[in-house]
Amino acid sequence: MEQVVSVTDLTNYIKHRLEQDVKLQYLLVKGEISNLKKHQSGHWYFSLKDENSKINAVMFYPNNSRLKFKVEDGMSVVVTASVNVYLANGSYQLKVRDIQPLGVGILYLKYEQLKKDLEKEGLFSRIYKKPIPAFPSRIVIITAPTGAAIRDIYTTITRRYKLCDLILIPSLVQGEQAADEIVKAINKASEFNPSVIILARGGGSIEDLWPFNEEKVARAIVNSKYPIITGIGHETDFTIADFASSLRAPTPTGAAELATPNLADLIIKIDDYKKRIIKANSRLLELKKDQLNQLISSPVLNRPEMIYASKRMHLDGLTMRFNETRRVFFKLLETKNVNIINSLKQLFKQRLVSLEKQQIELKHSLTQAYKQNFQQISHNLAKVITKLDILSPLKLMASGYALTYNDNDHIITSVNDVDIDDLIKVRFKDGNINAKVTTKEVHVNGKGNDI
Q: Which candidate, 7, 60, 75, 278, has a CA 20 to 30 Å from the CA of 263?
């Protein structure tokens, strides 16, 4: 009877056999990357495919961090990998150790990717390009202190334009440390307050020119306060620095020519301008002579009294018109004044009659209001007198009531306010009497008790 195995045992057996196969442990596999997923752990998961097949792959951190270019979907590559089995689902996959671009060098691919990123960021935009002065007074040159580049630049500038100062800031132009030195040189150039900066080197391979493809160099060029002209390599060589600069020249010599005017050409141009000015002045002088001759022969200068005669006649006509207009104006003004005075008199009479009528009406209204007001006040006063009369103590006293005072002239309101033998004064409506208390009778509940 055949042995029964579990799925796990079978998968482990296949994994073991595959991992024991030496050919499957070091493979170079070419294909197109798809479904690339970069996990937060740092590991990459993707598929490698061609026209007919597809295989899953994984590249663990830190192997993927050592790559010199950016891996993207759709990229054709050659991977260095081994085959292993993923036990969880029993599938086999490639365990990738390295990736190389297929058909394109790593540096060129890195160059294209950096160029694309910086262009997308806008670093090559015209807003960062600084104008090149037509007549520079000081030029700073950044290049190797020896070599054909510096000789060509010096020779070209001194031949074309001897009116500016030349300052060399020596720098490495290839090698691993070259990019940092170039950045330092660009920053140092601002200390000399240059009109323009030339960044140059001779031709070479992409590896030789690589420092000029570094991102740090491009950013230093864009951040420079002064315009930078690049002359790097040959006419067919384009670096990231060329795209970032204010102006690109095909060679170091070309950079020197773009940075300076040709003095000989300027002299020729000045001579040409001089001839043009002399010719133009001659034409202008002849024109003015003709105009002067015309003025000399004109009737106005030969018989100037003609001008005054016509002007005098015109003035006399204006004077007559003015006098007639003034006469008519004053007559109209006089008529208008009489009419205005009569109108004002009539208006004043009407206004005076109106005011007198208003005065009579107002006097009548005031009289009526005064009578009504007086009657109302008299009526109110009679009512108040009646009320006061009703409330008057004298009115009560006329009915037989009296007021009793003690010897201090304080009103006595209770039998408790006096004692036996006290002297009291009783006031009636028509006089007072003095008395002495002999007895007191206190009323309790309506009954009297002698004290």
A: 278
